[in-house]
Amino acid sequence: MAFEIVDPSEFLENNVFRQEFFLRSVERRDWSPFKGKRVLVRGCSSTFLPPWALMHLTAKLIPHARSIYYGNEHDNVAVYKSE
After folding, report:
1. Residue 49: pLDDT band by 50, 70, 90 thresholds?
2. Cβ count within 10 A of residue 49
């Protein structure tokens, strides 16, 4: 079964993690298209992301996604599954 993809690099400023830019970008994102979907948060990034940033993305997805995975399409870990 296919995933809807969230790539954390979408929330970087010129491929650099800057907290204010990251938080502003995450808040502006429309998360409703992920309603009821299996979502993969890509974890193979060459850019450093603090662990809390991935947790923040997960928290934004939980009200929408059916399940959330971290990793890549072939090697991932479930971090959330709705009841």
Report:
1. confident
2. 17
How far is C-alpha 75 from the geometric centre of its chain's CA atoms? 16
Type and span of the H or E element at 55: helix 51-61
Nearest CA-CA partner of 19 in 48, 43, 41: 48
Contact 38, 3 (CB under 8 A): yes
From the list 5, 3, 1, the residue with the least C-alpha distance to 57 is: 5
CA angle 45, 71, 46 (to 5 degrees): 10
As a whole number of angstroms, the distance between CA 18 and CA 37 comes to 29
pTM for the model: 0.90
Classify the C-alpha dihedral 72-74-78-81 as positive or negative: positive
Segment 72-82, tens digit of pLDDT: 999 999 999 99
